[in-house]
Fold each of these.
Amino acid sequence: MALDGPELDEALAVARRVVGEAVALLRARHASGERVEPVAFKATIFDPVTAWDRRIEDLMRERLGQLAPGVPIVGEERGASSPAAQAGSALRWLLDPIDGTVNFSHGLPLYGITASLEEDGRPMVAVVAAPDLGWEVFARRGGGAFTGDGQELRVSATADLERAILATGFPYDRATSHKNFAEWEHFQIIAGACRRFGAASLDLVMVARGWLDGYWEADIEAWDLSAGALLVEEAGGRVTDITGEPFVSDTGRALATNGAIHVEMLEQLATVRARRDQGGGG
Ligand code: LIP
């Protein structure tokens, strides 16, 4: 059963409140710019976990359990609250307590706290906050995307790839990160500029705000992409798989643009893939 407008508004209010509380907790106890030692590493030493990743996710899960009981939750640090959530249940919250943990642990302010509510695999409600930058942006499907102080987000109008500024990211796993090197090199040559900020959720916010014209990435996680994808769509942009198939956060792949350069970026991505498949490097 599809969530109706008032239910989406209510879910958005819950998401904003929970993300807001997470930001407040972090701000009260963590000084901006402070280095934070990892408490653990995931598969490799390039993928750290800090105490804050866990503390924030625990707070968000606890508050969602109180404010929206019964909805499955999937989070980066604590996993899926039920097997159904993992498999993509009808309704689920996706949480990334710190997107851009490497930046965060080095005191770099480019990291985000994200929450999205997906229904049948589609993000319906999204909030991304960047505590050290003072950003909060949110969207609900069909209702537009806004900053916390009420400005509507609109994507850029850049229609020419040579004038476009793009961003991407690379997985922590060095065994697979090279898979995006050929794409990076290609766009570095043909696009106006390429950037690598280290937090997918903020890359997507920057597309939604019209500061970037496009973003692509593969091999990351659903919670890195889901909230930002809705922000871009609600700001008038377009989000698909990097192949042009419909966007599904669980694939860990996305191409998000202002819409005007989308087809050209899809074509360029296909060209690089074809070259790689023929053994032409990358
Ligand atoms: C990060 C992403 C980034 C990607 C990193 C990593 P995390 O998320 O936001 O775009 O390039 O490898 O996945 O793990 O810091 O939440």
Amino acid sequence: MKSKITFLLFVIFIIAIHGQDDEKEWWRTATFYQIYPRSFMDTTGNGIGDLKGMIQRLDHLKDAGFDTFWLSPIFKSPQKDTGYDVSDYYTIEPDYGTMDDFKALIAKAKSLGIRVMLDFIPNHTSDEHEWFIKSCANESEFRDYYVWHDGQPNPEGGRPFLPNNWISVFGGPAWTWVESRQQYYLHQFLPGQPDLNYRSDNVVKAMSDMLIYYIDMGVAGFRLDAINHLFEDALFRNETQWNPEEEIENYDDLNHEHTKDLNETFLFVYSWRKMIDDYIVQKNISSDILVMTEAYASTSDTMRYYHDPTNPNVRGAHMPFNFQLIFNFQANAKSEDIQRGIFEWLNNMPEGETANWVAGSHDHSRVASRIMPEKIHMVNTVVLTLPGSSITYMGEEIGMHDNKDVPNWDNRNKNRTPMQWNGGVGAGFTTRNANETWLPIHPNYLTVNLQAETERPRSTYKYFQSLTALRKTNALRKGDFDFKIINEDVFGYTRNYNKEEGYLILINLSGSSHHLDLKAFDTFGKNKLRVVTAAPNSRFDVGDIVEKEHVTVGLYDAVVFDYVSSASSVVLSIALFFTTIFVYLFN
Ligand code: NOJ
């Protein structure tokens, strides 16, 4: 008896520990949403989204199946780079509301069981930040807050020449001259985004304090924007050119060995992770505070953000953003391209780490426009069913398109237009007309909108919801992953868990149907496949049962099967037969 009780207690202990792991490491299987604040929901009628609007619409995240969201920047900003130029990290952008609104948003999210993450921009501030203004004025405390350089001597006198050949990501020299200091400052992005100097202890302290401030407020983590630009060569050496024969005109003409992914940057990320991990221990916070790093870098450099390759105990980001699907899931992608994208990450990811899958953001053309409208379902399928966490850019769950009519001051604005909630005035985003918002709403909002898609029996949104529901299963949370190219247009993979629960995901990239034999997949010895969910354009209906060795997949199809044996399929068919008769007789 005693031994049975001990065993029972042991089982309960194991379950409790396991539950704790899930709670602590919640991000390993999380379903993330990215909210672009300016375009989510406007409650003031000025055509610009705001925090009160987010509160009002937060139920949507729950309905869609998201458990965490990260917010593009909400801090005070002159909006030269729509919020990625912060002038005060302790004040909310007045267009969006107040700090109390933000606290109310966190509280509402908490009541729904949703985690809130901030986009944090460590590399640069706005040129209107008081630190920069004081640094330009050479105030002693702020003198070294930014990266300043005298420039190269000009033999003819007058303004010195540029310090070196560094180019800004947005084009043009990465240096701008300031009269008051008679020096150049560095900006790896716009001139309105001066780079902070992380070799200054004051900067490190000021930025670290902010992270702690927002952890105390209840945020679940941070997306660290443009993290790989944090440090630059202390000697300001010229960067080498890809093609030394050509003029340096664009950012991509240079190999960024002195401005990106410097060793110091990795060490810095590790130090921030340690600071955060130590802080949650000190404060008894039971869930990890997430560090997500945004870095467009080589695969090997990207992987270094996870942890120090020479010492896995030196942790970095829980999640370095994985942009592979953005690069590999192109309009004409073949099965091999998708495989390459997926395994570029999985084969290089260090042991013990978790993958994440991203197909869009405010920086990239929307999936329906970048690839093609029919393919939104397959992209959503892949993002939501691969092993690891998923990240969905606002609007992709309803298949929004780029609005080509957006004024072209920033080529990325076409994919930042307001969320299409319904077919009413202002698409339910605002009380204004659809063309009077900060960016014009896409005219297709009359049909592509949340409400219409909720009402249709099959829609992009309904399919999305069915996939996020599946993410709660053990198979999708913890199952293994077996990917197979079936032919150049069709690929599939299984997510099997302990021979208990499994799904086969099948994608047809092409505009023609294919007859397939899927016997190579492990379906626990069961020879029939049953449709669990299928894209709205699929030839399959939920509940359809097909022979594993004779599957006809329709054009641009995306479908998820589970496995049934012949015996259970006979029982199911009989049940279906009697249900149909019953409905017929008693209706
Ligand atoms: C990456 C952000 O996603 C992008 O929108 C921004 O322009 C740059 N970082 C600079 O902050």
Amino acid sequence: MVQAVIWQRDRLLLLDQRALPERIEYVQCGNFREIARAIKDMVVRGAPAIGIAGGYAVAMAAAEASQMPPSLAREHLGKAAEEIASARPTAVNLAWAVNRVLKAATLALESEGPQGVIAAAEREAYEVEREDIEVNRAIGERGASLVPEGARILTHCNAGALATGGYGTALGVVRRAWEQGKVSMVYADETRPYLQGARLTAWELLQDGIKVTVLVDSAAGYLMAKGGVDLVVVGADRVARNGDVANKIGTYTLACLAKLHSIPFYVAAPLSTFDMSIESGSDIPIEERAESEVLSFFGRPVAPEGARAFNPSFDITPASLISGIITEKGVILPDIAENLPKVIGSAKEGA
Ligand code: MRU
């Protein structure tokens, strides 16, 4: 299966997701700043995948810190972690993974001195990656049990192997259900403006021989009205304590449409995506990206000069529109706000 992030100790290789599906090429990052830049520039994207890359970025900062006197080393690590975690603001997995590796590195610095810090940070970053793949398989298994025979599944953006350590969250559900012979078609929303659905989801599903049909985002309502969708499953960038979900722009629209047409609408999200320190979706920071992403298409202008663009990268789907949140620990069913702590329990502390 395709690997979005490859750790090679002296460098991190990131599959350049801007080039897919045309070209398969990796960007080499030799220090934490280059990784932070690659996260900002969407070389690597998807909540768990940027978390994994962020974790390795802290490991690279730890290697630099190991050459410094302890007080400077601590400061260096703290500043690096801040820079990495702020590369993209919405997906909580990034700050969660960065803090996890920072904590391991700082502890090692205190107990073992500079010699221990590199190994400790690297070990923790590797754990973040390894756990993610395991978690996705569990999500896939739980989610597949919700998929009816012959299902036509609609998904948005890319919540697959490319967006995670492997297998995917929403696409983990699709993969497992496909392996069980239950999927007749996957519909991938194109996902304007960045085309994660058309370029990435369609590509990675075809790599695995899974049937896929791409549609423009605005065709989803018509497809549902015709009775062409049995289930919607999407990923998440952050889940608030009340079950509101931040995910790729357009997710909220899909959830409204699914409600109107009585189609189950599921969110697949690992515990690392839950932010128990945030009360509701309105407190989740929403990244706004460059206007040029909307005003041009592959370098060609698609709007007259002088037109402005509104380009939020994510939106908030209220818990009331969600049929269930599929996690590695179980499916959170409505009433989501009430059931969320029962499934999450003490497994997840604040991010
Ligand atoms: O801007 P992106 O491509 O990073 O947005 C990705 C998404 O919205 C995904 O659905 C989400 O991160 C979940 S990935 C398992």
